[in-house]
């Protein structure tokens, strides 16, 4: 099962039911060649050749084609790699807490952390993982309900709300519309690599999702 990283703020928004979308930059996307029968696209530094069935390629065909190569696909269930911190670990159990809401939890110590009957570098392994969370700690599972391609600046007010924006933020900033945009631009630019900032207006994947159980069943 694949995972998707979320910071504490976005994890809290998912838990609160405010976040139902996530946008991820398409880090490389170039249409290299289109002829009567085939198109060649360089996508994330890999050349992909696709046969055209009707002899013509349109913009929507290319967008649909790129969407089909997203890391996360429609109906796929993934787990959220959220910020977590190990508090203490024993041979049998690992105690930790989630940073999004300070919820304490524990898991059975993974066998890969046990060597010769003792816990071996458990804290180093877990706290060294992205966001400090390993699969055994996962508590949030998402089912992808739609994948599409847009330009980043096409997001609009509804998209910002679906990314986890809360009206209380606008009250602190002032004007609601300006507050929404400022919040989203700041959020995106914190993690976007050079060349994919808001002002660059890159192509992005939009992944819509809903929370489910680990087996994909409804909560």
The top-level CATH class of the largest domain is Mainly Beta
Q: If helices are DSSP runs of H or I spanning 4 or more residues, what is the number of helices?
A: 6
Largest sheet: 5 strands, mixed
* Structural class by helix and strand composition: alpha+beta
**Shape type:** globular
Query: What fraction, in percent, of the residue positions are helical?
Result: 10-25%
Order of helices and strands: EHEEEEHEEEEEEHEHHHE
Give the CATH topology of the largest domain: Archaeosine Trna-guanine Transglycosylase, Chain: A, domain 4
Radius of gyration: 21 Å
- The CATH superfamily of the largest domain turns out to be Hypothetical protein
Supply the CATH architecture of the largest domain.
Answer: Roll
Write a structural description.
This protein is globular. The strands form 4 sheets. The protein has a 5-stranded mixed beta sheet with strand order 1-6-12-13-2, covered by helices on one side. A 3-stranded antiparallel beta sheet has the order 3-4-5, with no helix packed on it. A 3-stranded antiparallel beta sheet has the order 7-8-9. The chain has 219 residues and is of the alpha+beta class. The protein has 2 domains: 3-26 and 73-79 and 141-212, Archaeosine Trna-guanine Transglycosylase, Chain: A, domain 4, CATH 2.30.130.30; 85-137, no CATH class. Strand 10 and strand 11 (118-119) form a beta hairpin. The chain has helices spanning 8-15, 59-67, 122-127, 156-162, 167-173, 176-191; strands at residues 3-5, 21-25, 29-34, 38-43, 46-51, 77-81, 84-89, 93-98, 104-108, 114-115, 118-119, 141-151, 203-212. Helix 5 crosses helix 6 (176-191).
């Amino acid at each position: 099962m694949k995972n998707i990283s979320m910071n504490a703020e976005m994890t809290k928004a998912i838990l609160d039911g405010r976040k139902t979308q996530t946008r991820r930059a398409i880090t490389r996307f170039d249409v290299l060649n289109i002829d009567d029968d085939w198109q060649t696209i360089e996508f994330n530094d890999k050349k992909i050749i696709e046969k055209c069935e009707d002899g013509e390629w349109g913009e929507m065909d290319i967008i649909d084609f790129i969407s089909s190569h997203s890391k996360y696909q429609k109906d796929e269930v993934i787990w959220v790699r959220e910020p977590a911190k190990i508090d203490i670990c024993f041979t049998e159990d690992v105690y930790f807490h989630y940073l999004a809401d300070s919820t304490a939890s524990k898991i059975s110590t993974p066998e890969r952390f046990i060597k010769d009957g003792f816990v071996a570098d458990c804290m180093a392994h877990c706290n060294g993982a992205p966001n400090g969370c390993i699969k055994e700690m996962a508590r949030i599972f998402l089912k992808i309900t739609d994948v599409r391609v847009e330009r980043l600046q096409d997001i609009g007010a509804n998209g910002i709300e679906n990314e986890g924006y809360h009206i209380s933020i606008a009250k602190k900033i002032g004007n609601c519309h300006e507050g929404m945009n400022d919040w989203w631009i700041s959020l995106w630019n914190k993690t976007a690599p050079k060349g994919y900032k808001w002002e660059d207006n890159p192509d992005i994947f939009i992944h819509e999702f809903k929370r489910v159980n680990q087996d994909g069943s409804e909560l």
